[in-house]
Amino acid sequence: MVHRFLALVFVAAIALTPFVAAAQPADAEAPRTAWGAPDLQGVWDFRSLTPLERPEELGDKAFLTEEEAAALEQEAVQRNDALLNRPAEDATAGGSVDVREDGSPGFYNNFWLDGGTSTVDSRRTSLITDPPNGRIPPMTSAAAKRQAAVAMERRGVATHEPTPGGWIHDLGPAGLQLRCITGFNSGPPMTPGFYNQNVQIFQTPDEVVLLNEMNHNFRVVPLDGRDTPGLAQWTGSSTANWDGDTLVVETRDFLRETSFAFGVTTKHLHVVERFTRVSQDTLQYEVTVDDPTVWQQPWSYEVPMKWNDQPLYEYACHEGNYGLTNILAGARVAEAAAESSEQ
Q1: Model pLDDT for residues 129-165, shown as the tens digit of each residue
Q2: Which of 123, 118, 127, 113 is nearest to 74 (CA)?
């Protein structure tokens, strides 16, 4: 208990201290710590224009040409510029907070979004590397039935609205991120998303700390081979070891679903993350995901995280939790209006 308390104090102290890294030449050899381990410390940016799954229309095409990748990157820059300079519009009640019918941001304007403007260096058509088709494997029949039941129950309900008649536990597949319990991209495992796509890594000889910008989630991961208590947690229980110059982090003991994969996983989720500093400015992040109650086989993806010379900033997810009060109050009004129209 004392050890855990000290670990939390350690995290709080370093989290409150801005970490501004000096610029590093890209061709320099990856550094090492004073005790000889690969030095993974710093702020790492995992934005990517490359989608998690390969678009179906690309079929077996595993890689883009240089020209195709350049065109996608230019389109992203032009879209950001167009959204920045479009005429101001008044938001209307209802609909989606995240996206409108034309694909532009919803009540968040594009200033707040940061999806990146670069594809991965390999020009892969997906972050997923296995299966070879670059797609998430099929679900088990039981998981597919669960998904169909949720979809039926929430038919006509927007992403951030409660299921009709529901309360805090009925906010749908995005409920945990909406309640600010877990970030939608912070994991484990981490996935590129809409914004706040940075992780800061700290190291000691016995532990590594992963501090995500989104929802300020952190994990204090032991490196000394100690047994974890097996206590189920929202972000699971992680242990780590070195495989040569690669840090391997294994996470089990999830409380229930997480925000990962839009809430489809279960307490049986098993995640293996591999961190390899391949150069001064690139941290290769490789993930294998396995939940046999959800998918018919494990699957893997890769994200080349890029060195960020900026510090992490505070992420405040509806402070005071007033968001939930407003969401539920609005739902009750909508339900009353629906009942009135039926009479």
Answers
A1: 999 999 999 999 999 999 999 999 888 888 788 888 8
A2: 118
Q: Write out the two tokens for 57.
A: 């229309």
Output the six-digit token pair for 2: 């004392």
Cα–Cα dist 72/216, whole Å: 31
In the numeric block, the tokens 């208990």 are attached to 1
- Sequence ranges of the domains in the chain: 32-64+119-342
Give me the long-range contacts of 131-137 (CB less than 8 A, separation at least 24): 131/297, 131/299, 132/62, 133/54, 133/60, 134/53, 134/54, 134/58, 134/62, 135/53, 135/54, 135/56, 136/52, 136/53, 136/261, 136/295, 136/299, 137/295, 137/296, 137/297, 137/299
Helix (H, G, I), strand (E, B) or coil at 188: coil
- Residue among 99, 129, 64 at smallest CA distance from 193: 99
What three-state secondary structure class fits 290? strand
- 205-213 long-range CB contacts below 8 Å, 24 or more apart? 205/35, 205/37, 207/7, 208/40, 208/240, 208/247, 208/249, 209/10, 209/11, 209/14, 210/249, 211/11, 211/14, 211/15, 211/312, 212/183, 212/185, 212/186, 212/187, 213/186, 213/312, 213/313, 213/315
Tokens of 316: 């405040």
What are the angstrom distances between the C-alpha of 109 and each of 194, 195, 215, 268? 12, 12, 20, 37
Q: 0.70 cut: is pTM over it?
A: yes
| 300-328 pLDDT tens trace | 999 999 999 999 988 888 766 677 888 88
- Give the residues across from 301 on adjacent strands: 128, 287
